[in-house]
Amino acid sequence: MGLTDSFLSIESLMWLFLAVFMIHDLEEIIFVESWMKKNFPRINRFIPMIARKLVKNMSEVKSSQFAVAVFVEFIVFIPITYWAVEQNHYVLFVGCNALMLVHVFTHVAQSLVVKSYTPGVVTALIMILPYSGYLFYRMINEDLVTLQEVLRYAPTGLFVLPLVLLGHKVGKFVIRE
């Protein structure tokens, strides 16, 4: 057991998912509206045709609308984290964290393609990447899950994608321009 392992219980580490998620999404909430207004005309040429409508809609999002979408995700993540920590049901928790880890690489790719900062890339690299790696290391090391289970459970995180879209629809409904 490493030094950090003895200072931070696995339960505390798992509850930190909610904090890491919120800090990352706060970066996006703070910067998405102004960044999109400034950069959308320049980045539009990089967007694959299949994603243009979605990104165009995102280019018009207000930070307050984005915050509503984040809230919708957050209220779903609370019981998922509770079930993992208190009930030892790890499938959705692992899936959410696996999706969040993959999300790091989408932020990095976006920044590389547009050759500039994109909202969320900083916290993706300095928070999500080390958190996710350490979380999965600890979960496997403490025999909560195996690597095979992590790989098998990872696709369950895809349920978040329609949740994000729903959250953005709710945001546009609740916060009208």
Automatic annotation (TrEMBL):
Gene source species: Paenibacillus crassostreae
One matching Pfam family is: HXXEE
Q: What is this protein called?
A: HXXEE domain-containing protein
Q: Does the keyword Transmembrane helix apply?
A: yes
| Residues in the signal sequence | none
What keyword terms does UniProt attach to this protein?
A: Membrane, Transmembrane, Transmembrane helix
Chain segments annotated as transmembrane: 12-32, 66-84, 90-109, 121-140, 152-171
Record's keyword annotation contains Transmembrane helix: yes
